[in-house]
C-alpha cells in the first residue's frame, strides 16, 4: 500500500524552462504510445472525451481564478489554504496521503489511484496539444528577438559614425567663421550704404514719380509715395537740396488734391470710388469737417435719386410692380446704398467721435423716414388681396435688408421703425381677414335666402334645411381655417421678424385669437341677433326657416365648434403672452343665448303667421247669422297643415324632445270634455234670467282652480317645445279674438266643431295634451258666454262632421 506513493506526483512539472516542457511533452507522447493506448484505460474512449472537456473547463477556471463552486454560481468549496486540496496552491502530498490512508478503505484507494492516473494522462495530452499549437509562435518570437539584437548592433555603429562626422563639421564651420569675420563686417557696412543710397535716389526721383502717377491717374500710388517721403522731407527741410524736393512735391500734391476734389464733386463714379477719393484727400491732409459735409451731400443726392425711382413706380400711369419686386428694388437700391454710405462714413470719419455719429444718424433717419413712407404706400395697395404669402415674403425681405443698416446706425432707429411697419401691416391684415369672414358669413346667409326662396319661385324642390346647415357650417369653418393659415405665415420660423416679442405674444393672443376668431364669433352672433331685434315688418321679411337654421348653427357652435376653433387656434399660435383672453365658456354662453333668442323669435314669427289666419277668420265672419255647420272651416284645415309643415321643418334640425304620457284616445277625451254634463248644463236653455250671471260665476271659479298657462314661456332646444310654443300663441290668439265677438247658436256650434277638429290633430304636437284641452275649452267656453242662445251640437254629430272634414 505504501509502495503506491510514487504514483501521486505534482499536477505541474517542477522545471520552468522550455526544455522541461519539451521533456514533459515527450514523456506524454511516450505514455500515449500504442502499447498504452486508449484501450488500456478502464473506461475507454467514450469516458475520456467528456473528461477532456471537463479538464478544458477546469483550465479556464484556473485562468480566471475561479473555483468550481464560484463558476457554478454556488458558494466557494473548501478553504484555499487546505493542504489536502489537489487544486489548491498549498497542496501537500504527504498530508494528502496520510488523510487517504486514515479515511479511505482499500477499494476506494485503488479507485483514487486509477482516477489520478487518468487525470495525469489527460493533463499531459493537453499540455502536448498546447505546445504543438503554439510552437510556430514560439519559433517566430525567437527569430524576432535574434533579428532585433543584430539590428541594434548595426544601429549603434551608424550612430557612432554620425557623431564623428558632426564633430568634423562643427570644427570646419568654426574655422570658416573665424576666417570670414572681417569681410562680414565690411559687407554689412556696404549693405547699409546701399540702402541709404536707394532712399536718397527715391527722394530725388519723387517729384518725377508723383508727376507720372498724376498723369496716369494712379492717385493712390502717388499718395503712398508722398506718405513715405513726407516725414524725411519734413525732418531735413533745412537742407537746400531736400527743401527743393519738398517744394516740388507740395506743388504736385496740391494739383493732385485739386483733381481728386474735382473727381469727387462730379459724382459720376460710384460710392466706393468716391469713398476712395475722400480717403486720399484725408491722407493728403485736407480738412475732415469739410470733406464730411461734402461726402454726406453727395450721398444724399444718390439716395434721393433711388427714392425718386421708387416713387415713380407708385405713380398712377405705369402699372405698379408686385410688392416683392418693389421691396427688392428698394432693398438693393436705397438700403444697399445707405449701408455703403454708413460703412464708408464710419471708416473715414471715425476720428470725429460722437458728433460725427449723430450727424450720420440724423442723415439716415431723415432719408429712412421717406423710404418707409413709400414702402407703407405700396403695402397699403396689397390690403385687398386674400393671400398673404407674397406680402409676408416682401415684409421678410424688407425687414431682413434693414438689419445691416440697423446694426450700423443703431442711433437712427431704422430697425425699430421697420419692425413697427411690419406690426402695423400685420394688424391691418388681421382686420382685413375679419372683414372677409364677416362678408363670407353674410354671403352664406344670402345663399340660404336664395335657396329657401328658389323652390317657391321656380316651383321645384330645393335643398333641405339640414343640407343648407351643413353647407353653411362647412363654408364658415373653411374660411376660418384659410384665414388662420394666411395669418400663420407671419409667425413662420423662416420669417426674420417672427421672433419679435409682438409676434410671439400680442399678435397670437390679442390679434389672432381675440381680434380675429373671438371677434368673428361675436360678430356672427350679433348678426344673427339682428334678425330678432325688429319683429315688425322688417322682421317679417326674414324667412322663418333662416331663423331656425341660424339658431341651430349657433347651438352647434356652442356645443362643439367654438371649442374646436379655439383649440385649433391655440395649437397653431403658441401664445407666450400673459394678457387675459376670453374663456371658451363665455363664448359658448353667448352662442347659446343667441340660439335661444333666435328660436324664441322663430316661435313668435310662426305663431304670428298662424294667429293672423285665425284672427282674420274670426273677424271677417258674421257669427250671429251663420248657418248650421256642416263641415270644418278651411282655415282650421290650413292651421293643421301649416302646423304639420312646421313640425317637419323643425324636425330636420332639432331632436324630438320629451312628451308627457299620452291618453289612449286624446280625440275622444277632447270630445268628452265638450259633451260632458257640466258643459251641457252650462249651455242648457232652461236657465232662469239669472243664469248668465251664474254661468260667469262658475266659469270664474273654474279658472281659479285650473292651471295657469304661460303663453310666452322659454323655448327649449327640441321640436316638441317649439311646436308647443307656436300652438300656445295660436290658440291664445283664437281665444282673445273669440272674446271680442258675439255668437249665435250656429256660430257657437261652428266654434265647437272647429275646436274639436283642432283637438283631433294638434294634441300630438305638444308636450302635454292637457294644454290643448284647456285652451280649446276656454275658446268654447268664451264663445258660449257670448252667445244669447247657447245650444251645443250633439257630440256624435260633431264627431261625424270632423271625421268627414
TrEMBL record:
One of its GO terms (cellular component) is GARP complex. Keywords: Coiled coil, Endosome, Golgi apparatus, Lipid transport, Protein transport, Transport. It is found in: Golgi apparatus, trans-Golgi network; Recycling endosome. InterPro entries: Cullin_repeat-like_dom_sf (IPR016159), Vps51 (IPR014812). Its main location: Golgi. Residues 23-54 are annotated as: Disordered. It holds the Pfam family VPS51_Exo84_N. It comes from the Eukaryota. Signal peptide: none annotated. Residues 23-42 have a biased composition (Low complexity). One of its GO terms (biological process) is brain morphogenesis. Component of the Golgi-associated retrograde protein (GARP) complex. Component of the endosome-associated retrograde protein (EARP) complex. Involved in retrograde transport from early and late endosomes to the late Golgi. The GARP complex is required for the maintenance of protein retrieval from endosomes to the TGN, acid hydrolase sorting, lysosome function, endosomal cholesterol traffic and autophagy. Acts as component of the EARP complex that is involved in endocytic recycling. Belongs to the VPS51 family. This is Vacuolar protein sorting-associated protein 51 homolog. It comes from Saimiri boliviensis boliviensis (Bolivian squirrel monkey).
